[in-house]
């Protein structure tokens, strides 16, 4: 039986090519995700190793919590003398680190999306430099000298001797570039920009006069790092710790990898979608193959093969395809990984380059998924094949082995009910209290259930759908249009499965369209309500801020009435990292409408916290309760809830504190920067005049953008659009796989209708007419997929939007134009999918076709 | 579409000049048609007979423009097929030629009416309603026009195919074992109709068959063996055909 399976496999290479391609792409997406994220992990591991190379022990303030980028509070300079006095210490030096933005030659801020912009002191003692090396020039020695990383220098055409403008929290200043540095082999630190100054200058510009962020230590030849670590620990006060550099490197790597694990999870979700789509193609292909080999398989049965043996021939064929396709898929994963890197860098996430690792886990999971999905998908058609009666070998009739329509409807409706139930339970499941992870899983499984249900049910809906969608065709193109329409509904089940594969991708696209549109609409109306200020000054990108000097300058302007600063902070909320926004309690009311529903803003001045109503409700908190907030600088703090607020669209966090509270509990990297400054202009000043002076003030801080209400709203929309583009880009592969599916089905259908095509050609149909016939059919199938996808996606969009009402989607908005665009896109997919099969059909040799047995 | 007036008897609707068809090369070459020269008169019902492998189907395919000769010429209505490109051959088949095959004559997704009108639908021309009614009437298909092929009997299916072959008033109809899959009665009905089409409408028909009874409906029988025309019989009867076959076979 194995030999027979092998023979049929090689005899039918072509019809399995498209199937193999769909498996390959699915596996490639999974493998690519692992390779890509492994590459990220590895590159960060390498970089932290480089960053701490040459150092043995790090001395810094001990902290209970380590959240955000801020790092521990600084140390007094005197600690250095203590450390230097510890036996076994060969060299020790104080370091400062902070925030510094480098400007390019045309005055624009160089701000990578994601990685930070680091400013720091240049290590004088070469024994402590480790892998940090000067590629060109000499180390900074004077107050007007700077060194920058090689990547920033290369990308922006800086050479030693140039003047470089740098913004730090104390303002903007020009420096002479004296050195370009590398970090081991790498040109920068994990995508971060770096500006290094001589120690005293660094302390001054980073606002750390007389302080060190940390002290780096190297042990002498006779002493182990551990011994030095122990010696320092006993010499310094209890609030200061000494950690091994290797431990610190590992800790930071791990923390970063954990922080980035959402990328892997997110990509895997899209990879699973691609595999799921591929499984439809596989199942359909094998069903058609079994149908076409019906007589052959019946002949096996007639000459004594058991049903199990028939199953085996089909499954072995599937296994062979799966093995070959999975191996190809894992290799192609490297290409996908490259594509993901390019995609990430297009939205500003620079992944430091390193060799892409192929972990054993990637191979195992890739192979397992490819093989399992294929074999499972082929099993159903195989089992059906085993039920073909031997007598079918003698007759050329289509043996009906399908479920009856009634059974299908029952099964489909049951699946639909389960799917919708899971989604609703997941989305509105406060009652069940599933926990966030289980809720997401329930929604995901529910979505899979809905997709399966729709694909099962749609075989009965295909006929009416095709009639509606194909309605203009007979008018457009009488004969070929009519025949295409008829052909598309000849095998409703086949059409339904083929269309369903496209449905999945387009449903998710539709969902993202609706969800994004709703977020935009909701945010838009919320910003109109919530933003009282006339102008908002903020930075683009996920993190960072600008020097408080900007707000200071604005406060001096006569055209400006109120200046309100907002700062972002990370804190530890019961073990998970959370965000808060610090606001100026004196001016916030004039700038931002927080909709305080209980308590008052006044409590902020006394060190209280405002909690967003949903967070308060989830935790059962009321005004006057005390919550525990963990900060890197000050550890665990008991904070009283001063009020509950109902509008978070501008502050975008669940917790709001006062600026004094913020200053008391935050220190270190980037915490002295303003994230947003809201400005209200004086009543009698003309808008153009006011804007002119505000922009003039902001001109010194190029990373800060001045926007009025409308522009601010637009900027928020642009961010949503960017995410939408990213998600839809990731769904592209699923759509490509579906396209292969349509091609494959058409190909097999053309093969099945060889005689029919031959007859049509014999009685005078031109090649072009044959092509058109296949083309129209393809368009009908694809548009059915698009319409089903839009229907399902709209359902998802409506339900999810409703579930998240109050968390950013109060308004349901459906982007009609984009959705109509999807139908057109579906038609284009249909055209592309038809090209090869149409050519094949048109090129059939008439004589062979009509004498074909 | 221009109405094709049937040429006068004595005029060749189709002819082959030193037609040669060779499959394969060298020592394994098979000569399916061996320098055949033949004329098929207009308004005549010609049957081509011969044992399996005699080349009768190849002759039909080459005459009809479905297959090309290795050497020699084929003319339909004084048009030489060898000089035609695929597009022109397609047009020729659509306008000048009708086909009835042994099986799989109809498109399963189209109704009987649409199947009859297929060549006209392909061409996008309006049917001659009177002629359509007449053909369908003679074939007794009036009540079956709305049905799909799967709902028709074998005899009805072949009659639909015959109607299709005639409805575009082609210069010539080629039939390849048209009654091969039919029971005796259905076969007789179909062949009788084909003879009437020649007698009453002046249709030209060339039919390949191995059945002496079917061949006896023709005006003329051409016998083929090993790719050569070996004999000819005019105004045959079933018995005279059988006798002649015996002579040729022996």
Structure description:
The complex is a heterodimer of chains A (853) and B (250). Chain A is of the alpha+beta class and 853 residues long. Chain A folds into 3 domains: 52-252, no CATH class; 431-529 and 713-853, no CATH class; 541-702, no CATH class. In chain A, helix 14 (478-488) crosses helix 23 (767-803) and helix 15 (492-530) runs antiparallel to helix 21 (709-752). Chain A is elongated and about 100 Å long. Chain A starts with a helix and ends with a helix. Chain B is α/β, with parallel strands linked by helices and 250 residues long. Chain B has a 6-stranded mixed β-sheet with strand order 6-7-8-3-9-10, sandwiched between helices. Chain B has a 4-stranded antiparallel β-sheet with strand order 2-1-4-5, with helices on one face. In chain B, a hairpin with a 2-residue loop joins strand 9 and strand 10 (228-234). The radius of gyration of chain B is 18 Å and the shape is globular. The A-B interface holds A 478-479, 482-483, 486-487, 490, 755-756, 759-767, 769, 846-847, 850 and B 61, 66-67, 86-87, 90-91, 93-95, 97-99, 101, 104-110, 114, 118-119, 121-124, 164.
Considering the chains and any ligands shown, give keywords for the structure.
heterodimer; A: 853 residues; alpha+beta; 3 domains; ten-stranded mixed sheet; 25 helices; elongated; B: alpha/beta; Rossmann fold; four-stranded antiparallel sheet; 10 strands; globular
């Amino acid at each position: 039986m194995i030999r027979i399976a092998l023979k049929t496999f090689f005899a039918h290479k072509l019809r399995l090519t498209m199937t193999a391609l769909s498996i390959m792409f699915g596996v490639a997406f999974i493998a690519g995700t692992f390779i890509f994220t492994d590459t990220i992990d590895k590159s960060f591991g390498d970089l932290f190793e480089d960053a701490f190379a040459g150092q043995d022990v790090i001395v810094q303030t001990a902290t209970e919590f380590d959240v955000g980028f801020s790092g521990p509070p600084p140390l007094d300079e005197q600690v250095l003398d203590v450390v230097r006095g510890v036996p076994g210490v060969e060299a020790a030096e104080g370091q400062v680190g902070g925030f510094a933005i480098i400007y390019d030659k045309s005055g624009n801020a160089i701000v990578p999306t994601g990685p930070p912009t680091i400013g720091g002191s240049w290590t004088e003692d070469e024994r402590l430099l480790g892998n940090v090396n000067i590629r060109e020039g000499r180390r900074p020695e004077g107050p007007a000298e700077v060194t920058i990383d090689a990547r920033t220098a290369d990308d922006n055409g800086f050479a030693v001797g140039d003047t470089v403008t740098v913004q730090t929290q104390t303002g903007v200043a020009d420096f002479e570039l004296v050195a370009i540095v590398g970090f081991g082999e790498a040109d920068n630190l994990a995508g971060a920009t770096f500006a290094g100054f001589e120690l005293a200058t660094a302390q001054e510009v980073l606002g750390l006069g007389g302080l060190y962020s940390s002290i780096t230590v190297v042990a002498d030849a006779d002493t182990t790092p551990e011994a030095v670590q122990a010696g320092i620990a006993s010499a310094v006060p209890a609030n200061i710790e000494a950690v091994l550099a290797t431990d610190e490197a590992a800790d930071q790597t791990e923390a970063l990898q954990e922080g980035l694990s959402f990328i892997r999870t997110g990509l895997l979700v899209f990879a699973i979608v691609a595999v799921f789509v591929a499984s439809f193609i596989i199942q359909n292909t094998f069903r058609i193959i079994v149908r076409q080999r019906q007589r052959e398989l019946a002949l096996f049965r007639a000459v004594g093969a058991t049903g199990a043996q028939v199953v085996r021939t089909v499954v072995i064929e599937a296994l062979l395809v799966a093995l070959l396709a999975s191996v190809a898929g894992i290799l192609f994963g490297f290409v996908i990984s490259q594509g993901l890197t390019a995609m990430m860098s297009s939205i500003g996430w620079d992944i430091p380059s390193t060799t892409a690792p192929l972990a054993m886990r990637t191979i195992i999971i890739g192979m397992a998924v490819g093989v399992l999905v294929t074999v499972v998908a082929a099993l159903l058609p195989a089992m059906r094949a085993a039920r073909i009666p031997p007598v079918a070998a003698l007759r050329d009739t289509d043996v009906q082995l399908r479920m009856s329509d009634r059974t299908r409807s029952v099964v489909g409706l049951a699946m639909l009910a389960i799917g919708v139930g899971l989604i609703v339970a997941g989305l509105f499941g406060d009652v069940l209290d599933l926990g966030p992870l289980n809720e997401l899983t329930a929604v995901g499984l529910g979505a899979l259930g809905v997709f399966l249900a729709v694909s099962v049910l749609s075989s009965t809906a295909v006929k009416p759908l095709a009639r509606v969608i194909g309605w203009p065709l007979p008018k457009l193109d009488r004969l070929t249009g009519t025949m295409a329409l008829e052909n598309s509904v000849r095998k409703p089940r086949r059409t339904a499965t083929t269309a369903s594969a496209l449905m999945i991708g387009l449903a998710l696209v539709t969902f993202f369209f609706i969800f994004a549109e709703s977020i935009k609409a909701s945010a838009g109306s919320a910003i109109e309500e919530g933003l009282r200020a006339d102008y908002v000054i903020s930075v683009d990108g996920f993190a960072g801020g600008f020097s408080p000097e900007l707000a200071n300058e604005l406060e001096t302007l006569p055209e400006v009435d109120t200046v309100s600063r907002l700062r972002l902070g990370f804190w530890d909320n019961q073990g998970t990292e959370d965000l808060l926004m610090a606001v100026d309690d004196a001016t916030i009311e004039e700038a931002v409408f927080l909709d305080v529903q209980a308590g008052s803003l006044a409590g902020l001045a006394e060190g209280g916290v405002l909690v967003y109503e949903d967070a308060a409700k989830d935790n059962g908190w009321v005004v006057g309760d005390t919550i525990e907030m963990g900060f890197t600088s000050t550890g665990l703090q008991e904070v009283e809830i001063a009020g509950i607020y109902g509008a978070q669209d501008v502050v975008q966090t669940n917790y709001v504190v006062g600026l004094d509270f913020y200053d008391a509990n935050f220190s270190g990297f980037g915490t002295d920067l303003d994230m947003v400054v809201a400005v209200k202009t004086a009543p009698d000043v003309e808008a153009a005049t006011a804007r002119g002076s505000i922009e003039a003030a902001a001109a010194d801080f190029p990373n800060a953008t001045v926007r009025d209400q409308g522009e601010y709203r637009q900027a928020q929309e642009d961010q949503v659009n960017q995410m939408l583009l990213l998600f839809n880009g990731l769904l592209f592969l699923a759509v490509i796989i579906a396209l292969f599916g349509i091609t494959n089905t058409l190909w097999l259908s053309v093969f099945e209708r060889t005689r029919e095509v031959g007859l049509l050609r014999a009685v005078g149909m031109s090649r072009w007419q044959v092509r058109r016939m296949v083309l129209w059919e393809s368009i009908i199938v694809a548009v059915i997929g698009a319409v089903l996808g839009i229907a399902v996606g709209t359902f998802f969009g409506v339900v999810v939007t409703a579930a998240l009402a109050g968390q950013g989607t109060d308004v349901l908005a459906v982007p009609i134009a984009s959705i109509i665009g999807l139908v057109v896109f579906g038609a284009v997919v249909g055209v592309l999918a038809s090209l090869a099969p149409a050519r094949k059909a048109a090129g059939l040799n008439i004589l062979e076709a009509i004498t074909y047995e | 579409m221009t109405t094709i007036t049937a040429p006068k008897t004595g005029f060749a609707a189709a002819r082959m000049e030193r037609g040669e068809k060779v499959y394969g090369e060298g020592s394994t070459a098979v000569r399916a048609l061996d320098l055949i020269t033949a004329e098929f008169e207009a308004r005549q019902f010609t049957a081509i007979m011969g044992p399996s492998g005699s080349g009768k189907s190849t002759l039909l395919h080459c005459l009809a423009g479905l297959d090309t000769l290795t050497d020699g010429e084929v003319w339909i209505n004084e048009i030489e097929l060898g000089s035609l490109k695929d597009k022109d051959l397609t047009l020729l088949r659509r306008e000048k030629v009708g086909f009835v095959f042994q099986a799989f004559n109809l498109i399963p997704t189209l109704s009987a009416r649409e199947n009859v009108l297929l060549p006209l639908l392909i061409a996008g021309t309006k049917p001659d309603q009177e002629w359509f009614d007449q053909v369908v009437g003679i074939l007794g298909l009036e009540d079956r026009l709305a049905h799909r092929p799967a709902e028709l009997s074998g005899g009805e299916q072949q009659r639909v195919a015959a109607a299709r072959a005639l409805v575009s008033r082609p210069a010539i109809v080629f039939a390849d074992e048209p009654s091969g899959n039919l029971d005796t009665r259905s076969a007789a009905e179909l062949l009788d109709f084909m003879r009437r089409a020649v007698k009453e409408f002046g249709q030209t028909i060339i039919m390949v068959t191995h059945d002496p009874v079917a061949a006896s409906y023709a005006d003329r029988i051409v016998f083929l063996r090993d790719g050569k025309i070996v004999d000819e019989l005019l105004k045959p009867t079933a018995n005279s055909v059988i006798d002649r076959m015996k002579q040729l076979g022996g």
